[in-house]
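User: Predict structure, ligand 7TS.
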Amino acid sequence: MNVQADTIAQMTSTSFDPNRIIKDFPILRRKVHGKRLVYLDNAATSQKPQSVINTVSRHYQQTNANIHRGIHTLSVESTNAYEAARGNVQRFINASRPEEIIFVRGATEAINLVAQTYGRSTLKKGDEILISTMEHHSNIVPWQILCEQTGAILRVAPINDAGELMFSEYEQMLSQRTKIVAITHISNALGTINPIRKITEAAHKHGAIVLVDGAQAAPHMPIDVQDISCDFYAITGHKMFGPVGIGALYGRHEMLNQMPPYQGGGEMILSVTFEKTTYNHVPHKFEAGTPNIVGAIGFGSAIDYLNAIGMENIAAYEQELLAYATAALQEIDQVQLIGTAQDKAAILSFTVGDIHPHDVGTVLDQEGVAVRTGNHCAQPAVERFGHSATVRASLALYNTKEDIDALTSAIRKTIELLG
Ligand code: 7TS
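Assistant: Predicted complex:
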């Protein structure tokens, strides 16, 4: 019955065996258009291992109750499981204490929370927020809204033809006016891994605080927020093999303590009268209302799953797959890779001759190969390369070289049909 023990028992050791991993994901056994499903849309969302599915379903079957408010057994058990999940997230990203983890809906809500609490309470007209060309819309639009509300100015650090941040240009844009630097750890459209520690250090020298959008990094590499030294770090559970609708915001404790609340409601208060309400301590101050209890517990289980494999092992395996996939795609003349950073995660954005990416995606789907096509919610990044859309294959720990072979043969078929 012990889910954690189940998960860990499923994994033999830290040695990486993709064929064993595949067996943990029931959805990978299904067929699409009569073909084996080759799921290469992991940057959009990841699939869920049986252990996470079991955790969620067992919680509803055996433990379900609201948290932090009941003295009855189910409520106490639910509360303990929810808070244990917070501890899992804390250790996974090496935050120094569990109170630094706020459960939110996902990376989008994490970034909006920082913009609307820290940002709205501290920024003034003429202050600057610095982002980069490669940001997901979730790390652009909340800052634009904040600029409208405060009169702050949004500035954008450029990227080069490989899709890398132009570091000296970034540094030159920093000044005493820069109050917030908000930057992605890994680009979802280009795969670029940013030198986030260096970026943070430079921002701090100018007195700016740093939010790192870790949505694409946390499922694929070890994360250490204390080593990065950032002020905020946003992650999203559904890309980390956990349930949809749950994510976490890491915030340095003293920052969170100073920030005003995000939403008002139950749980985020210590006392309410019509004259004066006092707010709860962090993290509860930021978790108004009944949270996604089972989502958080499932998220904790996904972290157990990742820990049992080891993030170093996952990162090393995915680099091997990336090298294989890059070479295989480069063998096809019509394929043009968009995003060729030196330091790159296993995300391959590309075009195929003049064939519209949506048409490529449609033929690939007929072959059982799931990719995303479009601007990947990073329109400025894709347009920087003169395109309005690309095809994107984004890999994860359960993908194999056979999956890459299925992708390349489906691309060749597309060229035969439409090229
Ligand atoms: N930041 C980055 C870098 C992302 O890639 C995404 C989602 C988000 C933030 C938002 O995460 P959410 O869980 O709050 O939605 N990226 C993608 C993608 O690449 N395809 O679909 C969603």
